[in-house]
Amino acid sequence: MCSDKHDHYLDEDIPIRKLILPYEKEKVDKKNHMFLKGPIPYPLLIKASKLPGKALHVFIILWFLYGMTKNKTINLKNSTLREFGIQRHAGYRALKVLEKVFLVSVIRCVGKNPQVTIHSNNRSRGES
User: Fold this and answer.
1) How far apart, in whole angstroms, are the C-alpha atoms of residue 128 and residue 124?
2) List of residues 6+ apart from 75 with CB closer than 8 A
3) For residue 39, cis peptide bond before it (omega within 30 degrees of 0)
4) 13: DSSP letter
5) Residues 6 or more apart in contact with residue 96 via CB below 8 angstroms
6) Domain tally, the chain
7) Which CA distances in Å does 53 have to 37, 49, 57, 79, 123?
8) How many CB atoms lie within 10 A of CB 97?
9) 11, 55, 68, 88: least buried by Cβ within 10 Å?
10) DSSP-derived 3-state class of residue 20
11) CATH no. for residue 77?
12) How far apart are CA 62 and CA 54, in angstroms?
């Protein structure tokens, strides 16, 4: 009934090649061509660079997302933090530090990603 001439091949002997569909290729190309949109206001960059922990990293991620969305209010996803090598709790601590020096404001809801608004002016509250 069946031919036994192919029975001696094992599955591992069959070469595997990932087929990339045209719409998948566009996604890969977009990831490779992303960039940080500037300019980042120098006073804000200096202020963020003096903060402890991953605050500067998170600030740059927020500015990156702002450049992509052209919206200063961003939902900061855990997957985005992971993509940049930042653990979730370190990212949240950094947000608290950035919020404390008035670089950002954060709206937190249980079970949801924090909604972060970047403040592009260099004045802290109480200054005129």
Assistant:
1) 9
2) 113, 114, 115, 116
3) yes
4) G
5) 106
6) 1
7) 23, 10, 9, 19, 22
8) 19
9) 11
10) coil
11) 1.10.10
12) 12
Instruction: Report yes or no on 94 lying in a domain.
Output: yes
Can you read off the two tokens belonging to residue 9? 């091949």
pLDDT digits (tens, 9 = 90+) for 65-100: 999 999 999 999 999 999 999 999 999 999 999 999
Give CA–CA dist 103/114, Å, rounded: 15
Residue 17's pLDDT band, with cuts at 50, 70 and 90, is confident
Does the residue 8 lie in any domain?
Answer: no
Both tokens assigned to 62: 């927020």
Task: Return the closest-CA partner of residue 102 out of 62, 52, 54, 44.
Answer: 44
Cβ atoms of residues 48 and 104 within 8 Å: no
Give domain status of residue 57, yes or no: yes
Which residue has tokens 């940080």? Answer: 36
Residue 41: DSSP 8-state: P
